What does this fold into?
Amino acid sequence: MSLKIKSFEFNAFQENTFVVSDTERNAIVIDPGCYSREEEQELAAYIKQEQLNIVALLNTHAHIDHVLGNAFIKENYGVAYYLHQADIPTLNAVQQYASLYGFEGYRLSPEPDFLMEDQSELVFGTMRIKVLHTPGHCPGHVVFYFESEGIVINGDVLFNGSFGRTDLPGGNLETLKTSIFKTMFTMPDNTLVYCGHGPSTTIKKERLSNYIHQF
It folds into this structure.
């Protein structure tokens, strides 16, 4: 694999934050969930140690546990922020409920600089990413498919043996099932799936045994 993927488990929701870098040390940050000063320092230390050039901030979706570090990344690295247009209301709602989840110190996320759409392609350095719209967990959820590398960073669509919850505002089980069966399960068997929570998995494993089949 020509890409290096580093994951961090951050905040009380045990959310997975990803830093993806190429051989030229260009790097993107996906779903920064860092909330505490210690978590911010851990992420920054890795970026410094690896001498990475952060070139973009991407969100699979804008639930609070995936955007807690947006302000930190934007302020410290000055990069463009990408979000699907249908998840702007999800992002804007975070400030209204952050304190209810114990995040009284939530720093307001910046507004996105670029609005992603289904099937659009993002290119950063030697990284080529296909954006696939996968609603159901929330309206503007997307996954980032590195097709040539055989990997997908899929946020809260698929988990190892499970799938994203649909009981939050904008969630819908039937919509999520469509995203899983029509988009995720059409990827090659050996596609490595990086999840927003918990361990990674493969498309083959989830196609054969994921709990979604019981619904």
